[in-house]
Amino acid sequence: MAHSFLRKIFSSKDSFEKQLHNIIGFTPGNTELYKTSLSHRSVKEGSNENNERLEFLGDAVLSAVVADFLFKKYPYKGEGFLTEMRSKMVNRATLNDIAVKMGLKKITLYNKQDNSLKISQIFGNTLEALIGAVYIDLGYKKTKKWIMKTIIMPHMFMDDLEQLEINHKNKLYGWANKNGKALEFETLDERFENGRRLFTVAAVVDGENLAEGKAFNKKDASQIAAQLAVEKLGL
Amino acid sequence: MAHSFLRKIFSSKDSFEKQLHNIIGFTPGNTELYKTSLSHRSVKEGSNENNERLEFLGDAVLSAVVADFLFKKYPYKGEGFLTEMRSKMVNRATLNDIAVKMGLKKITLYNKQDNSLKISQIFGNTLEALIGAVYIDLGYKKTKKWIMKTIIMPHMFMDDLEQLEINHKNKLYGWANKNGKALEFETLDERFENGRRLFTVAAVVDGENLAEGKAFNKKDASQIAAQLAVEKLGL
Questions:
Q1: At B60, phi and psi to the nearest 5?
Q2: Which residues pair with B109 in a beta bridge?
Q3: Same domain, A137 and A26
Q4: Which chain B residues have a beta carbon less than 8 Å from that of A42?
Q5: How many angstroms separate the CA atoms of B141 and B139, rounded?
Q6: Which one of A45, A112, A168, B229 has the largest count of C-beta atoms within 10 Å of its C-beta?
Q7: Is ipTM over 0.90?
Q8: Do residue B117 and residue A41 have CB atoms under 8 angstroms apart?
Q9: Number of domains in chain B
């Protein structure tokens, strides 16, 4: 598929490499790899030509780096807190925002005529693919440093994220209020698992079970349900 | 909490270190860290004393290592295949089996009197925590080599896992048959997403929607639904 914008961006090699350098902050070892990381499947069908494989890899590397960062930053916090903080840091909306701020929108190659593309996810996915490319290019240790310097430090404010706790529920209540919907959180199940009481809580909108969350206390379970509901509704 | 078996194992320092060495294949830099990785919350309440934080970390590191391994082993396979293979490799049942084979059952510290503990998960979780400890001790690069040598190469047979494709559905049908249940796979939704048709398929048992899977074709979606149903039923 030859799109004119694609030809335009890739015709001047210097210009693409300069733009890429400006975004990642170093000169890549393998330009082709980075081009792949920036190519959405809507312009490249082949699974070894578009960025989905690199996205799979980058997503996993980012998760590990963030887990390491949180494990060391919060030495006395439990696994539940760490999991929650990670999901605040690497959820789709946050990654997409960061990707746009980094300028990835300008160099991501996708079919702009295709209205079915989720513009709220495409750049976040590209950012994950870019992380995958950096990992292949530089290895884990340097990628970790690069993620800290380029993504976490400038874009993720841990004090704010710690406070974000109740926002999913608030957001969902705000939406329900505005749209005249009845929102309830209903405990569906309560059982012992690994020596602890495990709760399943559903976010119920106008009688419909929209999403469910499981956690070892009702507050966390309803937060998770609210977060999933917020994602489902695209709020 | 002082349990007699706990005292017994930890009373002879040599014996614990010898057992640990036999399992991991090297002499650890920090024995305390490894003790933490082997301590279930049923014997250690404190979140910095039991293995849940290390499990969080090790799970992420294992995911990244497996993603890297699959990315390189299958250079022409798409993201869907890689994701599926990873879930076959690192699902709870597989990890628990491997952990038992590695001998982790003998040195994991947990409250054997507590009947609510899920014995089918506890050692797999310990293995993840052990991976977290190895990562803190040796760093990513050496942990990757260690995971390849100790976990993937001796215990994961890629040719077999590739063939495993239809087993979740077969397993669920087998269970349904044996227990006189009616099992159906129902397509709940079909929509365009990112230029592709996305299917939501439910595994329905005796009219009850047990689990749902989403994928870009019905076969994969029903496989995912079957896999989730199998996990839910504890088969």
A1: -70, -40
A2: B39
A3: yes
A4: 194-195
A5: 6
A6: B229
A7: no
A8: no
A9: 2
Residue-wise pLDDT tens digits, A98-114: 999 999 999 999 999 98
Q: Which residues of A touch B67 (CB under 8 A)?
A: 56-57, 59-61
Containing structural domain, residue A193: 165-233
B76: closest CA of chain A, how far (Å)? 6
Q: Strands across the sheet with B183-193, in order? A: B183-193, B196-205, B208-215
What's the CATH code of the domain at B206? 3.30.160.20
Contact B117 A194 (CB under 8 A): yes
CB contact under 8 Å between A47 and B195, yes or no, is no
User: Residues B32, B149, B56, B230: is their CA dihedral positive or negative?
Assistant: negative
Same domain, B134 and B51: yes
Do B172 and B139 fall within a single domain? no
Q: Verify that B143 and B173 share a domain, yes or no.
A: no
Same domain, yes or no: B52 and B146: yes
Q: What's the rounded Cα separation, in Å, for the pair B111 and A233?
A: 43
Question: In this complex, which of B66, B117, B195 lies closest to A195 when CB atoms are compared?
Answer: B117
CATH number for the domain spanning B116: value is 1.10.1520.10
Q: Show which residues of A are catalytic.
A: 59, 128
In sequence order, the β-bridge partners of residue B202 are: B186, B212
- Residues of B with a catalytic annotation lie at 59, 128
Report yes or no: A228 and A203 within 8 Å, Cβ to Cβ: yes
Q: What is the pLDDT of residues B187-233, one digit of tens each?
A: 998 888 777 888 999 999 988 899 999 888 888 899 889 988 988 88
From chain A, pick out residues whose CB is under 8 angstroms from the CB of B132: 71
| Nearest residue of B to residue A114, measured between CA atoms | B195
- Find chain B residues with C-beta within 8 A of A194's C-beta: 41-42, 116-118, 121-122
Q: Do B71 and A61 touch (CB under 8 A)?
A: no
Length of chain A, please? 235
Higher pLDDT, A116 or A2: A116
Residue A139, token pair as written in the block: 């290895």
Task: Choose the mutation target among A3, A41, A44, A47 for the interface with B, i.e. most B CBs under 10 Å.
Answer: A47
What is the structure's pLDDT at A166?
55
Among A134, A156, A178, identify where a domain stops.
A156
